Amino acid sequence: MYQYDKYDQALVDARVADFRDQVARRIAGEISEDQFKPLRLMNGLYLQLHAYMLRVAIPYGTLNSTQMHMLAHIARKYDRDYAHFTTRQNIQYNWIKLEDAPDILADLASVEMHAIQTSGNCIRNISSDQFAGAAADEVTDPRPWAEFLRQWSTFHPEFSYLPRKFKIAVIASKEDRAAMRLHDIGLELVKKDGVLGARVFVGGGMGRTPMIAPEINPFVTADDLLSYLEACLRVYNRYGRRDNIYKARIKILIHEIGADAYRAQVEEEFKHVKTLGIDPPAAEFERIASYFAPPAFKSAPDDGLDLSDSTFAAWVKQNTFAHKQPGYIGVTISLKPIDGIPGDASSAQIDVMAELAKQYSFDELRVTHAQNIVLPHVAKRDLKAVYDVLAANGLGTANLDQITDIIACPGLDYCSLANARSIPVAQKIAQRFADAERQADIGELKLKISGCINACGHHHAGHIGILGVDRKGVENYQLTLGGSGAEDASIGKITGPGFDEDGIVDAVERAVEKYLSVRTDGERFLDTYRRVGMEPFKEAVYG
Amino acid sequence: MAELRFRTDEPQEQPAVTLDAFLDQSNATAVRLEPDDDARALLPYIDRLTMIEIGFPTFRDGRGYSAARILREAGYTGELRAQGDVLVDQLRYMRRCGFDSFMPNVPLNPVVVDHVLNVYDLAYQAAADAAVPVWKLRHG
C-alpha cells in the first residue's frame, strides 16, 4: 500500500501544527464558533449531541496493522474504548474533547494518517472497492487512481469552499461494491484498446433528493484526469446553488441544467484547463502505482478447505470472496453481531483484527462501505486459524450481505442532525431475524437505516430501506423497497405511511415473508421486487 | 487601500466600478466582481485593468476562488483583491488562487497572518501562485 514520502509527511505534519494553532485561538476566544466551524470540519471534528465527534480518514478504506493499532489506541486513550466504522470507509470517535484533538491528529500523523477533509464543503475522502488488488474481476487496482486523487484534492485551494460537500469513488470492476454511481463523481476504470481510462459519472448522491449519476464522459485517461476533474468542479463551483443547502449538491445542478448542458460546459472548461499543465507526468502515476504492487503471494496448491466444522463452513460460505491468486481467499469480518451496534468495534477487537492482518493478510486491512472489515489476502490453509481467532473475539458472525448485515447511521443516539434513532431499530430487526437458517433461506438482502433525510445510512440504496423521521415529536419510520447501490443502482420507493419502532420491525418481516412466498428459484429479494412490483408488498405490509 | 498587500507597485486609488458598469463602455481601470458575476466577461479587457476586487459577502461562498484563478490563468497581472468576509484562515488558499491584496471587514491579527501563510511550504497541486507542486519536486 501507499507510503508517505517526506513531502506527504511534511504536509500532514503542517496540518497538525495548523490545527493546533486554530484550536488554541478558539479556546482563547480569538475566533468565534461560527468561524471555527469550517476549520474544525475540514479536520473532521463535528459537534454532536453530547460531545465532539472526530472522523478520521481511511483513504479508499485501506490501512495496515500499525495504523489499525493506532485507531485502537486512540479509542482507548481519548474515547470510550470503542469506535465506529462508517459508510464512507472512515472511522469515527464519538466522545472527543476539543483540547485533545490536536494530540490525536499528531498521533495519527505518526502512522501516516489524518482527518483532513473528512467533513466540510470540500472534496472528501476518496472511496473505493474494498476488494481492490484482490478481486478476481477487476481490470486493474483502483487504489493508485484513488491515491492520485487524494493528493490532488488535499488542500485544494479552489475547491475548499464549494456549495456543498463533494464525494468521489473509484472502482475497477463491473460489479460495483462501492455504490459508485451514488457519489458526486464516480469513476469506473475500464480498458479500451489496451489503455486504462475512467468512465466518469457525475451527479449521483443520496440525501433528501437521491440521484443516480449519469455518465458524463465515457473515457478519460490518467494523463487528463486531473484537468478533467478540475473542469467538472469548476463548473460546479460556478453554478452550484448556494441559496439553499438542500439544493446545493452537484446532483441538483445536473438535474436542473441536464447532463448534456453540464457536459458541454465541462468540455469547454477542460479545453482551457488542459493548457495549464496541471496534470502530473506519467512517472508520478507510476510512482504511486508501484506502492500497490501485489504482495509476495506464495504459490500454494489450491487444495480446498476442510469444511467439516459446520459453523466454520457456514462462515466461509457467507463471508469470503474469490481471490485472484490461487490458494488465497478474501475475508470479510462482520461488524454486525446480532446484539451489536452496526460498524462498532472495541479497542480490543480493533487490535485483534490488526494482529490477524499482520500475521495472515500481508499487513493489510480494508474498511467496507457496509461498515465491515476485510482481510484481503488470506492463504486458504490459514483460514481456519483466522476464523477461530475472530470467533473467539465476537467477530465471527456469518451474515455478510444478509438481512442482519445492516447499514445504520449513528442516528439520534449521537447525531445532532438525526430525527430518529437508528441503532435500536437495527438491533430489533437483527434480533427478529437472528436465526442463521432463516437468514440463509432469505439470502442476499441489503437492509439500510438512516435516522434522517440526509441518508447517511444509505436507505435509498437498500433492498429494504428504513428512514427515520420526526412526526409531531414522535419517531416514525418509513419503509422503502427496491433500492440498490450496486452496478444495477436504483433508488428505493416508499411503501406508504410510516410505522413506530416496533411496527417497522413487523413491516419488514411481512415484506420478507411476502418475498419468500412469491420468489422463484434463485431470485433475491431485490429481483422479486423488481419482477412483481410494489403492490404485492404493499398489501402484505399494510394488508 | 487594502489592509494587506503583497505587491510592490503603487496601490490603485481609482474606485472600482461594477461589472455591468464596466461592460457598459466604461474606461475604468478598476472593477469589482460580486460572487454572481462571471469573471470570464473581463478576459477581453485584462490588459487595461490595474485592479480587480472580488467580493466575499460570506466566507462560505467560494466562487471568488475560481474567479481569481480564471483571471490569473488568462494572464491578468494587476492587483487582485479579496474584500469582505475574508478570514485569516482563508488567506492561504486565496493567495494560492492568485489574490495579492486583502480588505477584510474585520482587521486581521498580523501575527496570525504570518503564521497561516508560513505553516505550509508545500502544495500537492498547481494553482495560480508560484508554488511548485509536490509531483514536480518529486520528478524534477
Question: What is the topology?
Answer:
The complex is a heterodimer of chains A (543) and B (140).
Chain A: H1 6-27, H2 33-41, E1 45-47, E2 52-56, E3 62-64, H3 65-78, E4 82-85, E5 91-96, H4 101-109, E6 127-128, H5 143-153, E7 168-171, E8 185-192, E9 195-202, E10 215-221, H6 222-239, H7 250-257, H8 259-273, H9 282-290, H10 310-319, E11 320-322, E12 328-333, E13 344-346, H11 347-360, E14 364-367, E15 373-379, H12 383-392, E16 407-408, H13 423-432, H14 436-442, E17 447-450, E18 464-471, E19 474-481, E20 493-494, H15 501-518, H16 525-532, H17 534-542
Parallel strand pairs in A: 6-7, 7-8, 16-17, 17-18
Antiparallel strand pairs in A: 1-2, 2-5, 3-14, 4-5, 4-13, 8-9, 9-10, 11-12, 12-15, 14-15, 18-19, 19-20
Chain B: E1 4-5, E2 17-18, H1 19-23, E3 30-33, E4 51-56, H2 63-73, E5 79-84, H3 91-96, E6 101-104, H4 110-118, H5 134-139
User: What oligomeric state best describes the polypeptide chains here?
Assistant: heterodimer
**Beta fraction of the residues of chain A?**
15-25%
Task: Provide the residue-averaged pLDDT of chain B.
Answer: 94
Q: Tell me the distance between the termini of chain A.
A: 53 Å
CATH class of chain B: Alpha Beta
Structural category of chain B: alpha/beta
Distance between the termini of chain B: 40 Å
CATH architecture classification of chain B: 3-Layer(aba) Sandwich
Shape of chain B: globular
> Over the alpha carbons, how many angstroms does the gyration radius of chain B reach?
15 Å
Count of discrete domains of chain B: 1
In order across it, which strands form the biggest sheet of chain B?
A: 1-6-5-4-3-2
Number of strands of chain B: 6
Radius of gyration of chain A: 23 Å
Instruction: Kindly state the percentage of residues in helix of chain A.
Output: 25-40%
Counting H and I runs of at least 4 residues, what is the number of helices of chain B? 5
Q: What is the molecular shape of chain A?
A: globular
Biggest sheet layout of chain B: 6 strands, mixed
In the CATH hierarchy, what is the superfamily of the largest domain in chain A? Sulfite Reductase Hemoprotein, domain 1
